[in-house]
């Protein structure tokens, strides 16, 4: 059960944002989501109180005020990521970061490998985890991790040491997951060694189930045609209509997604969806890892103005093939406008065979069966 919130229902920052969306019809009010919003209100209030310390020196030299985070779990499409994003956007903590769990762990492993590479020649036997955690603690008080799921023994054995140090230094964790903490790394190798982390996680977060009654992600696409064929105002109008349906009419804003130390510009994003022109994704120097990051950052992607490919667009065609492969593997919902019918997209002999597979996947991605499926759990580290 979720504890009684410190603020009255509807008074908190997250609850207010949620109520605004339901009042304008962008969301259907759901009791489970309201309860989760109130839990996040409590955390936001406590973060605000911890910021209101008497002086800069007090904040600098005193131990951080303890704030218990949240671990929200439930089936896909129930609004976990939406609520966390609402919380992140209003949380009164300047040192905050929101990142996919597997991307975060990727960064930890890269940091450890780099430390060991530098430490070996000089005989440094310091703890690599402590070295990697140090800059995180300096830059981050609130850590929001989406899709917390433990796949492999490497992460399983690292998490205890990692989060012991993060929690001890006042980092507040807000996480979403499809499984309860006790279900993490289920049936994994040497799972008994992982169980202390589960207890640590439960001690430092409020564990809350989100048994929302409806799969809101699927409902966006019921009865919708996700592709527009042709160019000009008519195709753009079809895409605008689909975008309004997907986002509930919520105002979209530019954002960015971090990938290998770079920022991928996202022209429009709202409610877990992103909208790009074809040139944004396929006529810029993006690669597989970039597309994997995008596939994990958004559950829905709309692409305007996909052209017919020819020999002069070979690089763009190859990027488009990679993009669709990664969106398909993840189960991301796709909306797009195409200059020509899908079967006529690929006219280049060098990519004709690969385009045959891409065309098949595009057709499948527009089917009711695909649109009804959940996202697939494909970690970025495996790409």
Question: Any overview of this molecule?
Answer:
Keywords: ATP-binding, Cell cycle, Cell division, Nucleotide-binding. One of its GO terms (biological process) is cell division. This is Cell division protein ZapE. By secondary structure, the protein is α/β, with parallel strands linked by helices. The chain has two domains: 13-209, 3-Layer(aba) Sandwich (Rossmann fold), CATH 3.40.50; 220-382, no CATH class. 46% of the residues lie in helices and 16% in strands. It contains 15 helices and eleven strands. It has helices at residues 13-23, 31-51, 56-61, 80-90, 101-122, 128-139, 153-168, 195-204, 216-219, 233-247, 278-282, 288-297, 314-330, 352-365, 368-371; strands at residues 69-73, 96-100, 142-146, 172-177, 205-209, 227-229, 253-259, 262-270, 273-277, 300-306, 333-338. Strands 6-11-10-9-8-7 form a six-stranded mixed beta sheet, sandwiched between helices. It has a five-stranded parallel beta sheet with strand order 2-3-4-1-5. α13 (314-330) links the parallel β10 (300-306) and β11 (333-338). α2 packs parallel to α4 (80-90) and α5 (101-122) crosses α6. The chain is globular, with a radius of gyration of 22 Å. 36% of the residues are buried.
């Amino acid at each position: 059960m979720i504890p009684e919130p410190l603020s009255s229902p509807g008074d908190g920052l997250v609850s207010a944002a949620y109520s605004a969306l339901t009042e304008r019809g962008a969301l259907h009010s759901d009791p489970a989501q309201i309860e989760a919003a109130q839990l996040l209100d409590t955390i936001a209030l406590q973060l605000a109180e911890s910021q209101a310390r008497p002086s800069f020196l007090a904040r600098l030299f005193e131990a951080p005020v303890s704030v218990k985070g949240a671990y929200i779990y439930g089936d896909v499409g129930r609004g976990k990521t939406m609520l966390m994003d609402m919380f992140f956007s209003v949380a009164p903590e300047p040192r905050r970061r929101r990142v996919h769990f597997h991307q975060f762990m990727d960064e930890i492993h890269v940091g450890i490998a780099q430390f060991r590479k530098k430490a070996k020649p000089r005989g440094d036997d310091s703890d690599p985890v402590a070295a990697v955690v140090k800059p995180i603690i300096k830059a981050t008080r609130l850590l929001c991790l989406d899709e917390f799921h433990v796949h492999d023994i490497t992460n399983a054995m690292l998490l205890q040491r990692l989060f012991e140090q993060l929690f001890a230094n006042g980092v507040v964790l807000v996480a979403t997951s499809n499984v309860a903490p006790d279900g993490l790394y289920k049936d994994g190798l040497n799972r008994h060694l992982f169980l202390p982390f589960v207890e640590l996680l439960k001690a430092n977060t409020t564990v809350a189930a989100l048994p929302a009654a409806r799969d809101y992600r699927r409902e966006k696409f019921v009865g919708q045609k996700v592709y527009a064929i042709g160019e000009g105002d008519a195709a753009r109008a079809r895409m605008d209509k689909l975008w309004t349906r997907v986002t509930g009419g919520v105002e979209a804003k530019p954002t960015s997604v971090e990938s290998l130390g770079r920022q991928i510009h996202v022209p429009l994003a709202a409610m877990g969806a992103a909208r790009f022109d074809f040139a944004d994704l396929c006529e810029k120097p993006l690669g597989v890892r970039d597309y994997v990051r995008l596939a994990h950052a958004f559950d829905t992607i709309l692409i305007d103005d996909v052209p017919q490919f020819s020999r002069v667009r070979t690089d763009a065609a190859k990027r488009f093939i990679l993009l669709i492969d990664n969106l398909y593997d993840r189960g991301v919902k796709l909306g797009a406008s195409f200059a020509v019918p899908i079967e006529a997209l690929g006219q280049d002999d060098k990519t004709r065979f690969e385009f045959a597979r891409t065309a098949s996947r595009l057709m499948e991605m527009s089917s009711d069966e695909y649109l009804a499926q959940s996202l697939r759990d494909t970690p970025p580290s495996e790409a």
